[in-house]
Write a sequence for this structure.
């Protein structure tokens, strides 16, 4: 379970960082906002998917290896 003690917070920090960047890009506007806000939100969805996979793997490992 030690690896998940590091992976779970790291995944949550990555999701939060990408979310903050996407909000910044959206509010900055202009060419930067048009080109980066949508890309950042797609990256956020991918990061959330990875974070959920890590959480599911942690739950599975805890059930099987206790």
């Amino acid at each position: 379970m030690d690896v998940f003690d590091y992976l779970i917070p790291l995944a949550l920090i990555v999701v939060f960082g990408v979310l903050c960047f996407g909000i910044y890009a959206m509010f900055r506007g202009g060419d930067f906002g048009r080109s980066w806000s949508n890309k950042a939100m797609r990256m956020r969805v991918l990061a959330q998917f990875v974070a959920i996979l890590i959480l599911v793997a942690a739950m599975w490992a805890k059930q099987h290896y206790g």
